[in-house]
């Protein structure tokens, strides 16, 4: 699920080290908001398939063997891929049970960008957050298993919270721009647009979290 309503930072890799390069052990690049993917549909489908297989393997091993006792090598072997393939998709084992957040963020961003010009900004954000609910609903069993793990393992809970913070930043930026436009259009200048955008985005995410947690339980 989305953890508690307090947002944390990204974690350093806790197991294994990727091959030398930009994602080497000891450094996790800042998770900026994603650019739109340039992969072909077939390549994107294959990428998501591998990521989901790795996620399923990690979830099963964490549940049966324990998070701390599970290694990246074991996750890769259970998914039938090489260790280097694992690190092409994930930077650490705690990231491995969240295969869909990046693509979901791209879809949510696309909803915001395609919004009709006169749509209420909050309605647009609510449509964007539906993409997140669709992600969980696409695999109910996996979502429930992941929720249980994030409740039990602090490292996984922090990873989930960090992922959720990206959605909130996306929605806050969108609302800030559109509330600012509305203020100028309506000649309203006596409210704090950044604060209003932050509060509104947080309210939408919190409401979604509440519904999602009730469903996952």
What does this structure look like?
- The protein is an all-alpha fold.
- About 65% of the residues lie in helices and about 0% in strands.
- It has eight helices and no strands.
- Helix 1 packs across helix 2, helix 4 runs antiparallel to helix 5 (about 120-135) and helix 5 (about 120-135) packs parallel to helix 8.
- InterPro entries: DNA-bd_HTH_TetR-type_CS (IPR023772), Homeodomain-like_sf (IPR009057), HTH-type_TetR-like_transc_reg (IPR050109), HTH_TetR (IPR001647).
Please tell me the total number of domains.
Answer: 2
CATH class of the largest domain: Mainly Alpha
Radius of gyration: 19 Å
Give start-end ranges of low-pLDDT stretches.
Answer: 1-36
User: Which CATH architecture of the largest domain?
Assistant: Orthogonal Bundle
Total beta strand runs: 0
User: Structural class of the secondary structure composition?
Assistant: mainly alpha
What CATH calls the topology of the largest domain is: Tetracycline Repressor, domain 2
Q: Any key phrases for this structure?
A:
single chain; 217 residues; mainly alpha; Arc Repressor Mutant, subunit A; Tetracycline Repressor, domain 2; 2 domains; disordered N terminus
Please provide a brief summary of the model.
This protein has 217 residues and is mainly α. It contains eight helices and no strands. The chain is 64% helix and 0% strand.
SSE topology:
Layout: H1 41-64, H2 72-79, H3 83-89, H4 101-113, H5 121-137, H6 140-152, H7 154-185, H8 193-216
